[in-house]
Design goal:
The chain is α/β, with parallel strands linked by helices. Helices cover 50% and strands 15% of the residues. The strands form two sheets. It has an eight-stranded parallel β-barrel with strand order 1-2-3-6-7-8-9-10, surrounded by eight helices. The longest helix has 21 residues, at 191-211. 50% of the residues are buried. The structure holds 1,3-dihydroxyacetonephosphate (13P). Residues 24, 141, 180, 263-265, 293-296 line the site of 1,3-dihydroxyacetonephosphate.
Length: 342
Amino acid sequence: MTAYKQDLQDIAQKMVASGKGILAADESSGTIKKRFDSIGAESTEQNRRDYRELLFRSEQAMKDHISGVILFDETIRQKAADGTPLVQVIAETGAIPGIKVDTGAKDLAGSPGEKVTEGLDGLRERFQEYHGLGARFAKWRAVINIGSGIPSQYCLNANAHALARYAALAQESAIVPIVEPEIIMDGSHDINSCFEATSAALKALFDALHEQRVMLEGTVLKPNMVLSGSKCSLQAGDDEIAEKTVRCFRRHVPAAVAGIVFLSGGQSDEQATARLSAMNEGYETPWQLSFSYGRALQAAPLKAWGGKAENVAAAQAAFSHRARMNALATTGNWKSTLEAAA
Ligand code: 13P
């Protein structure tokens, strides 16, 4: 095997190391502003740096439970308060720095209510720059909505094609691609509609990855769980979610894929943990099933911080707790009593 292919596999294996998961801290400027608005903090460059620095300096949690951190373009170029590049702060904990490279989901021409993710122009050169800045993996997220007559095959194929183009370019630059086809949970659809949409999206994705010669052993999948729509009157329980999610992946995800790290997608932080734990407790799978949570890891520390320097230690404690709960879930050993005890 050529050296770069071995490197990709080694990085991917570290990203899905047993008992660890990924911190998604790659909120775009618009999204982080919304998060800061919710705690009454101003979204200045320094506040964004201070907040993210406190997460990355939660040393024990980072060392024990976090295998990688997904960054936004601004953050990968930022320095900590003491002048150390944030990428170095992360690397010193043993976690791998990663970078979000898509430029967002835009309306899909000719298909109202559907989106396609942009960001391919100039991506080869951007990957080279990000590699120089320390990134060893990347993320690209496709947004798939469920509704009347959607998702269309057109939307699934357009997004799968873009995900595969991105993944092939990432691997060429010795960067492991996280491929993220997110079925959005908004809507009144039931869990079986989510199962069907997730199946169709994964089928389109793995066909495109195969066509575009992407090495699956050097690729990490970041999917949604198979869930009831957030406005569905009949909400599936954790056991049904675990069973249907695993069944869907067994049908569509080749065993060669390095690992699966879930997004939280608007589940409460405890739900995201409980469901991951239910999957790992109940099922044997060919892939490590772990987490790459944004909101489900950050909601508690963000609230505890509240934009105030005097709350840094409390925020770090809240982050460390969630990281530990999710680490336990990767081996099926989380219990709700551990939440109460904290
Ligand atoms: P959430 O866990 O908040 O869904 O974010 C994960 C992510 O990276 C979405 O792209």
